[in-house]
Design goal:
Layout (H helix, E strand, L loop, with lengths): L1 E2 L2 H4 L7 E3 L2 H9 L8 H4 L7 H9 L3 H11 L3 H7 L21 H13 L16 E5 L3 H12 L3 E5 L8 H4 L8 H13 L3 E3 L10 H7 L2 E4 L5 E2 L12 E3 H10 L17 E5 L3 H12 L4 E6 L10 H9 L3 E4 L1 E8 L5 E14 L5 E5 L5 E4 L2 E4 L3 E2 L2 H4 L26 E3 L2 H4 L4 H23 L1
Helix pairs in contact: 2-4, 2-7, 4-5, 5-7, 6-7, 8-17, 12-13
Length: 454
C-alpha cells in the first residue's frame, strides 16, 4: 500500500494510505488460492464471499467484482480502511501459513473505491415495495448496513440520527486521515438514492420516545452505539485540559476544530498532550494531537506493546509519525496549577502478572515507582459504555448490568418488533461487528414483517 511520507502526513489530515496501484491489486488478487472451504469467509462478520470478488478482480472484471462485493457488504470502502482484517478474514487465509496472507482488506478497498467512481455499478436495486415501514435509530455502521439491506428487500426505511450529519462513529470518531468523510457521504448518498430517508438532529429518547417511534413504524432497529465516555476516576480528572476521547475527536473530526477560527468549534492546542489507552481510539487521538500541532504526543498504556488492542497498522503508523509510547504505566492522578489547568499526569509503573478475565496479562502496580509526565492536555481513551438517553425513557426495555440492551438470537429486544445491534448490545466493539449485527437484524426484521403480514 502506498502511503504519505510520515513526516509530511503528521502535519496534515490527508489520508495516510493511498491505495494499491492497479497492477499491484491484480497481482495480489492472483495470490488467492480459491480454497474449496474458504475459512476467510467464516472469519468475516458480514460473510463477504471473499474468493468470488477476488477471483473476478484477478480476471480484470471490476464491474462484477464490485457487484459481488456490494451484494455482501454495504460499506466496502469503509471496511477496507478500518476493519481489523488481520484478526478476522486474513488470519484465516491459508497463504498466511507460509508467508503473508492475501491482503483482503486492501483488495476490498480497491474494489470499493473503484465502485464509488462507477455509480451505475453500485446502485442498490430495491425489490418491489412491501408497504412496510422500518425506523432505524442511529446512522453509524450498524444502522447504515441495516438500512441498505432492508431497502434492498423493498421496505421503506427511515434513519434517525442525533447529530447534524449522518455516519455516526464513522464521521465523529474516525479521523479524516484514516477515513475521508467524502467516502461516508458517498455511501449515505447511495442509500438515499435507493429511497432511504435520513433525518438528522433527532434524539430518540428526547425528540421522541422509543414508544412513539414504534407506533409510527412496523418495526424498529436500535443502533445508537455506546457513546458515553468512561473515565479513570482518579484525582484531578475534572481539571481544565482533560478531554474524553469522544469529545476530543468529535470536536476535531465532526466539528472541524482543526480549521478554527474558520470553524466555530475550538479545541485546546497543547504543546504536550498525553493520551491514556491502547486501542484504536487512543491511536486516533494521539495521532490527531500530533497533527493539531502538539510538540510531543504521548500514549500512556498499562501493558506492553504486545497487548495493545489497537490494529498493528495503526500502532506502526503512530510510531512512524513520532508518537511517544510509555508502556507499563498507569495514571493515578492528574496534576494541575492553582487555576486548575492541567500540568501533568502522575503515573505508577506496572508489571504484568497472571492473565485477567480478558485473557491478557494483568498489570500490577510497582510500589514506590511513581513519576510525573509533564503535559498540558490529557485525552482519556479507556473505553465507552451505553448512553442511557434512549433506554432511560423506556423502562420496559430489558438491559444487562452494564446498561446494554438485551436481545434474543434473532436480535429482537424485550419489546416485540423492536430489534437492536452493534455497540448498544455488545458494548464498544468494531465497525465490522456492528455491520454484521445490522445485516443479521435486517434479515430478522424482514422475517418478522413477513410473519406479521400473514
Amino acid at each position: 500500500m502506498l502511503e504519505q511520507d510520515a513526516l509530511l502526513r503528521s502535519a496534515n489530515f490527508g489520508e495516510v494510505n493511498l491505495g494499491l496501484p492497479e497492477k499491484v491489486a491484480l497481482l495480489e488478487a492472483e495470490r488467492c488460492l480459491q480454497c474449496r472451504d474458504p475459512k476467510c469467509v467464516s472469519g468475516c462478520p458480514v460473510m463477504v464471499n471473499i474468493p468470488r470478488f477476488i477471483q473476478l478482480l484477478s480476471e480484470g472484471n471490476l464491474t462484477e467484482a464490485a457487484r459481488s462485493l456490494l451484494a455482501d457488504n454495504a460499506l466496502p470502502s469503509v471496511t477496507g480502511r478500518v476493519c481489523p482484517q488481520e484478526t478476522q478474514c486474513e488470519v484465516e487465509c491459508i497463504r498466511g501459513l507460509k508467508g503473508l496472507p492475501v491482503a483482503i482488506g486492501y483488495l476490498e478497498r480497491y474494489v470499493g473505491d473503484w465502485a464509488r467512481g462507477h455509480s451505475e455499478d453500485r446502485a442498490l436495486a430495491p425489490a418491489p415495495p412491501t408497504g412496510k415501514k422500518v425506523g432505524i435509530v442511529g446512522s453509524g455502521p450498524g444502522g447504515l448496513t441495516a438500512a441498505g439491506e432492508l431497502a434492498r428487500l423493498g421496505h421503506a426505511v427511515t434513519v434517525f440520527e442525533a447529530l447534524h450529519k449522518p455516519g455516526g462513529v464513522l464521521v465523529y470518531g474516525i479521523p479524516e486521515f484514516r477515513l475521508p468523510k467524502k467516502i461516508v457521504e458517498a455511501e449515505v448518498g447511495r442509500l438515499e438514492k435507493a429511497g432511504v430517508k435520513i433525518v438528522c438532529n433527532t434524539v430518540i429518547g428526547r425528540t421522541w420516545t422509543l414508544q412513539e417511534l414504534r407506533s409510527q413504524f412496523d418495526a424498529v432497529f436500535i443502533a445508537n452505539g455506546a457513546g458515553l465516555p468512561v473515565f479513570m476516576n482518579v484525582p484531578g480528572e475534572n481539571f481544565k485540559g482533560v478531554y474524553s476521547a469522544n469529545e476530543y475527536l468529535t470536536r476535531v473530526n465532526l466539528m472541524a476544530a482543526y480549521q478554527f477560527p474558520r470553524a466555530d468549534t475550538p479545541v485546546l492546542d497543547g504543546k504536550r498532550i498525553a493520551t491514556v489507552g491502547g486501542g484504536n481510539v487512543a491511536m486516533d487521538s494521539a495521532r490527531t494531537a500530533k497533527r493539531m500541532g502538539a510538540e510531543q504526543s504521548i500514549i500512556l498504556y498499562r501493558r506492553t506493546r504486545k497487548e495493545m488492542p489497537a490494529r498493528a497498522e495503526e500502532i506502526h503508523h503512530a510510531e512512524e509519525e513520532g508518537i511517544h509510547f510509555e508502556f507499563l504505566v498507569a495514571p493515578i492522578e492528574i496534576l494541575g496549577n492553582e487555576r486548575k489547568w492541567v500540568t501533568g499526569v502522575k503515573c505508577v509503573r506496572m508489571q504484568l502478572s497472571e492473565p485477567d478475565a480478558s485473557g491478557r496479562a494483568r498489570p500490577v502496580a510497582i510500589a514506590g515507582s511513581e513519576f510525573v509526565v509533564p503535559c498540558d492536555v490529557v485525552v482519556v481513551a479507556v473505553g465507552t459504555r451505553a448512553n442511557p438517553l434512549l433506554t432511560a425513557t423506556c423502562p420496559e426495555l430489558k438491559l444487562n448490568k452494564w446498561g446494554n440492551i438485551v436481545v434474543n438470537e434473532s436480535g429482537m429486544t424485550s419489546l416485540p418488533g423492536v430489534f437492536a445491534g452493534g455497540d448498544i448490545v455488545r458494548g464498544a466493539a468494531t465497525v465490522i461487528l456492528a455491520m454484521g449485527d445490522g445485516k443479521r437484524a435486517a434479515r430478522s426484521i424482514d422475517q418478522f414483517l413477513q410473519a406479521a403480514a400473514r
